[in-house]
Design goal:
- This protein has 119 residues and is of the alpha+beta class.
- The protein is built from 3 helices and 2 strands.
- The chain is globular and about 40 Å long.
- The longest helix has 17 residues.
- 22% of the residues are buried.
- The chain is 33% helix and 8% strand.
- The chain has a domain of 76 residues: Orthogonal Bundle (DNA Binding (I), subunit A).
Length: 119
């Protein structure tokens, strides 16, 4: 059963549309999702300031939805997850980031997308 959290600013139909968009991006699996933003140069680690604008851009694009389990969460419960882990050559570029709940992010760990067991 899918948990549904209160998502202020998003109607149920908007959340469902965003959930479908995330799912269709995952099914295509051509490339990590691109959100059409130019990435600012980032140092080796995500700075708090850098993480804030990236998190906001991802929230604006996908809403408060974990891109792994597709459940809706309060914004504070979502974490930034590297699609291609930094330990395996991934970057802090916004096109390599997705929003994930803490449980999914921890379960995925440093697995590559094709190695992770997505629901």
């Amino acid at each position: 059963m899918t948990r549904v959290w209160d998502a202020p600013g998003f109607s149920p139909s908007e959340l469902e549309n965003k959930r479908r968009e995330v799912l269709s991006d995952r099914i295509l699996q051509i490339d990590p999702p691109r959100i059409g933003l130019k990435s600012k140069p980032v140092k080796n680690s995500i700075t708090k300031k850098g993480a804030v604008w990236k998190r906001k851009a991802l929230l604006d694009k996908f809403g408060p939805i974990c891109q792994i389990c597709l459940n809706t969460f309060p914004v504070q419960k979502l974490t930034l997850d590297h699609i291609i882990p930094r330990s395996k050559g991934g970057s802090n570029d916004i096109n390599n980031l997705q929003l994930a709940c803490a449980r999914c992010n921890q379960t995925k760990g440093d697995s590559m997308p094709e190695e992770a067991a997505y629901p």
